[in-house]
Structures are given as structure tokens and as C-alpha cells.
Write a structure and sequence with these properties.
single chain, 271 residues, alpha/beta, 5-stranded mixed beta sheet, 5 strands, globular
Length: 271
């Protein structure tokens, strides 16, 4: 049955043409779950980001500044100036990174000033950790000064927020989980080393990081699959491999900080 409200009903022939055009509209919503992913793929193709298709299944990419995140920072309220402390810490971390890269990398100063550009936020579920990380990325990219070369890129993309879906990284196939994680970081390094995006700051959000950074000691004591240990090893190795790059900042959130591997917590510049 078809029902159409027409203020001035046309003749019968015109009505048939109108209804036939309406009937061509596909109202099938079976693919709505893939809408967000397809939008991301289209956006990445538009800006030629070097991401593999497998990576797109495990991450969400948001160009910054984003209208979706506008006003998010101002809407959050925490006690003890938590927002300001975290923002100041992240700002100091990026300044240290700029300083270390203004001199010869791997000289004596780099050995004294250790900077992994990683911050860990922990707290109970629903306390706003993920939302705060998104707000911080938006705030950073608005505050950060960019060279004039940005105008030559012909894009309004001054930063990227890459959110890792830890649940999707894990696979039932042995060795596939660490392979997925390594693929994501390899694509990330391609962006960081790309001449086109060398002035675009990249923010990486690893939500519920305990999924891929659980304590290896506890994993082995419970006789769980060694694949979980391989994922933790891969994460630590990949974080270390990002040190030569300066235009990125990693934010990790956790509901269970006591279950995290000590080596991961030690790599965080701030907790």
C-alpha cells in the first residue's frame, strides 16, 4: 500500500509517474551498521591517508578540529582541576618532544629526557575518560600553532584522532591479534612519516587498554593462551618504535589499572 499527501493532486498519469519514482527509493536499513565504517573509508580516500582496509575495521578516524566535538571540553566538569592538569601535562609532553627533535635525536639530552608521549587515564566506568580524551584532542589541535605550509595542503585537517577498538583487535585465530595491532601501528607510522602530513598532529586513543595490555604475569599464572602475551609484547614494542616521531600523542583509558602490565604503566609519562 502506498500513501502520499499531495496538496494539489495531479492527473492520474502524473500520479503513476510520481509513485513509481517514490517506489524506487530503497528503504532497506540492513546495512546501517556499516554506515559509519563506509563514511570513514570515503573520508580517508578523500584525504589519501595510507590506511589498509584491515586497519579501517579496527579504528575510527576523526579529522580535527571536528564539529562533532565542538563544545565537548566546556561541557565536562571534574574536581581538583583534573582537566587543566591533564591538558597541561599533555602540552608539556609535546613541548618536550619538540625540543628533543630540535636537536640531534639519540644524543645525550634524549637519554636524560625520556618522553613516550603517552598518558593513562583510569577510573570507574562512566566517569568520562573516553569523552575527556576526545575533548583533549580537540582542544590541543585548536590551541596548537601550525606553520604556513598548512595552507598549501588545501585541507582543513589540522589533526587526526585515531581511536583503536581493542575488542576488534583480538581474533580467535592464533597470532592474528598481534598481527592486527602491528598493522595499525605500521599504518600510523606511515602517516607520521608522510611529507603531506608531517605538520598534522595525530592523537591516538586506546580505549579500555587493559584488553591488550593485561599483566603478563597474571596471564601466565592462569595458564591462558600465550597469544595474549604476544599482544602485550607487540603493544610495548610498537609504542617504543614511535619515539623517533614527534607529531603524535597517545591517550589510553582503563577501568582496571591494577590489571595492567607494569611495563605499560611505566611507559606512561603521566597517570
Amino acid at each position: 500500500y502506498y500513501f502520499y499527501l499531495l496538496s494539489n493532486p495531479p492527473d492520474f498519469e502524473s500520479s503513476n509517474i510520481l509513485t513509481s519514482e517514490f517506489d524506487k527509493i530503497d528503504l532497506d536499513d540492513s546495512n546501517t551498521e556499516n554506515l559509519e565504517e563506509s563514511t570513514i573509508v570515503k573520508d580517508l580516500n578523500k584525504y589519501s591517508l595510507p590506511f589498509a582496509e584491515e586497519t579501517l575495521k579496527n579504528v575510527k578516524v576523526t579529522r580535527l578540529p571536528s564539529t562533532e566535538l565542538d563544545g565537548l571540553w566546556e561541557s565536562l566538569y571534574f574536581e581538583n582541576n583534573v582537566k587543566q592538569k591533564i591538558f597541561s601535562h599533555g602540552e608539556a609532553s609535546t613541548k618536550i618532544s619538540d625540543f628533543l627533535h630540535s636537536i640531534t635525536y639519540n644524543n645525550e639530552a634524549t637519554k636524560v629526557l625520556e618522553n613516550n608521549k603517552l598518558i593513562l587515564l583510569h577510573g570507574p566506568p562512566g566517569s568520562g575518560k573516553t569523552t575527556l580524551c576526545r575533548a583533549i584532542a580537540q582542544k590541543f589541535v585548536i590551541r596548537k600553532k601550525y606553520p604556513n605550509i598548512m595552507a598549501s595542503l588545501n585541507t582543513d585537517c589540522k589533526g587526526l584522532l585515531i581511536e583503536l577498538s581493542c575488542a576488534r583487535i583480538f581474533s580467535r585465530w592464533f597470532g592474528e591479534s598481534s598481527k592486527n595491532l602491528e598493522s595499525i601501528f605500521n599504518d600510523l607510522k606511515r602517516i607520521l612519516s608522510s611529507p603531506e602530513y608531517q605538520h598534522v598532529f595525530v592523537y591516538v586513543l586506546i580505549d579500555e587498554v587493559e584488553t591488550i595490555a593485561g599483566s603478563r604475569k597474571e596471564i601466565l599464572s592462569k595458564n591462558e593462551s600465550s597469544d595474549s602475551v604476544r599482544v602485550v609484547n607487540t603493544l610495548l614494542t610498537q609504542i617504543d618504535s614511535l619515539k623517533p616521531y614527534k607529531n603524535f600523542f597517545i591517550m589510553a583509558t582503563s577501568n582496571l589499572i591494577d590489571s595492567l602490565d607494569p611495563a605499560f604503566v611505566d611507559r606512561a609519562d603521566g597517570v
